[in-house]
Design brief:
Blueprint: H1 2-17, H2 22-33, H3 38-44, H4 53-90, H5 109-123, E1 127-128, E2 134-136, H6 137-140, H7 151-155, E3 160-162, E4 165-167, H8 173-181, E5 186-195, E6 207-217, H9 222-237, E7 243-250, E8 253-262, E9 279-288, H10 290-295, E10 304-311, H11 312-320, H12 333-336
Parallel strand pairs: 1-5
Antiparallel strand pairs: 2-4, 3-4, 5-6, 6-10, 7-8, 8-9, 9-10
Enzyme class: ligase
GO molecular function: ATP binding; catalytic activity, acting on a protein; magnesium ion binding; phenylalanine-tRNA ligase activity; transferase activity; tRNA binding
Protein name: Phenylalanine--tRNA ligase alpha subunit
C-alpha cells in the first residue's frame, strides 16, 4: 500500500513537472484527486486494512494528497504568472498615441436664439408659460375665435388626432390656458414647438418653433404693443433697427398687424437677404380680441391686452443667413459646430 502511494505520488509529480497549461493541470487533479481519482480509490479501500496499518497508511495518503495539491496550485500559479507577464509584454500601451476623439454635441442655434429671446423678455418682466403640444381643438382654435369652418383653419394645415384633439399649430393656445389660470395683470411669453402638415422643403418643416407673447391689464393700448416690440427688435437685431407695422388680420386680435424690421444685413437698402425690400417681416400681433378675453373669463370692459407671435426658425435663419430650414433639424455636427 505504502509503495503504491509512493508510486502515485511520483507519477503525479512527474506529470506535474511536464505540464505547461492550466487545462492539463485540471486533468491531473481529476486523475489523482478527483472523486474517482487514484488516490481517492486508495483512501476508499482503506477499510480492508488492519487496525494497525490503517492510521499509518491514512497519514501517508493525506501527506501525498497535500503534496499533490500544493504542487498543482503552485503549477497553476506559475502558469498564470507567466501568462500575465506575456500579456503585459504584448499589450504595451503607447502613451504617445493620440486618443480617440469623442464628438460632443452642441446646442442647436434654435435653442441659442430662443435663450436670447427669453432673456430679452425676462428683463422686461415677462414670465415663461408652457402648454401641451398635443392640444384640444378648443384651445388651438375655438377659444381663439376660430370656430369650425372658419377659413383661418384652412391656412394652418392641421394634424388631427381626432375631431377634438390636434397637434398644436401655433403657440397661441397657451394665451388661453394662461388667461384661464391667472387673473390680470398677465405678462407672459411662451416659446415652443408647433406642428403643421406641410411637405418638407427649404422653407417648410412640419415641426417648427414659435414664440407667443401676451400682456393683459387695465389700460393696455396699442402704444404698449409698439413700445414693447420695438424694444425687443432693437435688443435682438441691434440699436439701429427700425420697425413698421402693417395692418393684417388674425381672428384672435383686433386690430391686428404684422411688424417688419429693417433688414439687419443691408440696413434697409435692399439686398439678397431681404429680397431687395429693405424690410423683413418679423411677427404677427394685435390687441387681444374681446371675444377671446370673454372666452377666458376676463371682462373686456375692464381689461385690454396685446399679443404677438413669431416663428423662431425664421428668426434664426435670418440671423445666421441660412437658406434651408432642414439644417436646423438634421443634427449634423459639421453644421452645428459653426454656431
Ligand atoms: N398664431 C399666429 C400664427 O401662427 C401668430 C400670431 C399672430 C400670434 C398674432 C399672436 C398674434 O399672438 O397676436 O400665425
Amino acid at each position: 500500500m505504502k509503495e503504491k502511494l509512493e508510486l502515485i505520488k511520483n507519477n503525479a509529480l512527474e506529470e506535474i513537472k511536464n505540464t505547461s497549461n492550466s487545462s492539463e493541470f485540471e486533468s491531473i487533479r481529476v486523475k489523482y484527486l478527483g472523486k474517482k481519482g487514484e488516490l481517492t480509490q486508495i483512501l476508499r479501500g482503506m477499510g480492508a486494512l488492519s487496525a494497525e496499518e490503517r492510521p499509518i497508511v491514512g497519514k501517508i495518503a493525506n501527506e501525498v494528497r497535500a503534496v499533490l495539491e500544493t504542487a498543482i496550485e503552485e503549477g497553476i500559479g506559475a502558469i498564470k504568472n507567466r501568462e500575465k507577464n506575456e500579456r503585459l509584454k504584448n499589450e504595451v500601451i503607447d502613451i504617445s498615441m493620440p486618443g480617440i476623439k469623442q464628438t460632443i454635441g452642441k446646442r442647436n442655434p434654435l435653442e441659442q436664439t430662443l435663450d436670447e429671446m427669453k432673456e430679452i423678455f425676462i428683463t422686461m418682466g415677462f414670465t415663461i408659460e408652457e402648454g401641451p403640444e398635443v392640444e384640444l381643438d378648443y384651445y388651438n382654435f375655438e377659444a381663439l375665435n376660430i370656430p369650425k369652418n372658419h377659413p383661418a383653419r384652412g391656412e394652418q394645415d392641421t394634424f388631427y388626432i381626432n375631431d377634438n384633439i390636434v397637434l398644436r399649430t401655433q403657440t397661441s393656445p397657451i394665451q388661453v390656458r394662461t388667461m384661464e389660470k391667472q387673473k390680470p395683470p398677465i405678462k407672459m411669453i411662451s416659446p415652443g414647438k408647433v406642428y403643421r402638415s406641410d411637405a418638407v422643403d427649404a422653407t417648410h418643416s412640419p415641426i417648427f418653433y414659435q414664440m407667443e407673447g401676451l400682456v393683459v391689464d387695465k389700460g393696455i393700448t396699442f402704444a404698449d404693443l409698439k413700445g414693447t416690440l420695438e424694444l425687443f427688435a432693437k435688443k435682438m437685431l441691434g440699436d439701429k433697427v427700425k420697425t413698421k407695422f402693417r395692418p393684417h388680420h388674425f381672428p384672435f386680435t383686433e386690430p391686428s398687424a404684422e411688424m417688419d424690421a429693417t433688414c439687419f444685413v443691408c440696413g434697409g437698402e435692399g439686398c439678397r437677404v431681404c429680397k431687395g425690400e429693405g424690410w423683413i417681416e418679423l411677427l404677427g400681433c394685435g390687441m387681444v380680441h374681446p371675444e377671446v378675453l370673454k372666452n377666458c373669463g376676463i371682462d373686456p370692459e375692464v381689461y385690454s391686452g396685446f399679443a404677438f407671435g413669431f416663428g423662431v426658425d425664421r428668426m434664426v435663419m435670418l440671423k445666421y443667413g441660412l437658406d434651408d430650414i432642414r439644417q436646423l433639424y438634421e443634427s449634423d455636427m459639421r453644421f452645428l459646430d459653426q454656431f
